[in-house]
Amino acid sequence: MDEALKENIMGALEQVIDPEIGIDIVNLGLVYDLDLDEEGCLTVTMTLTAMGCPLAGILVDQVQMAVQDIPEVKDTHVNIVWNPPWTKDRMSRYAKIALGIN
Predict the structure, then answer these.
(1) Transmembrane stretches, by residue range (predicted)?
(2) Domains, the chain, ordered by start
């Protein structure tokens, strides 16, 4: 996947807001990897801020909806992983400022 398409997909994913924290999943550092195969199947490897998050299903749906208008993406699979574990160190500077974290 070229860098421009990756940026386009990440930009779309910035529209997906973690409902508990109020910051998007990209700036929270929840998106670990993107993979687009030749058939246009996008695999989004991501984590959640906490295991057993009751909103996991909602976030998966929102990820799929966020990228559906990108022409190269025909289908989306969301792979939730727990390794490496998410820490606030993965957050962007924007997210840390918004949440008052140094």
Answers:
(1) none
(2) 3-96 (3.30.300.130)
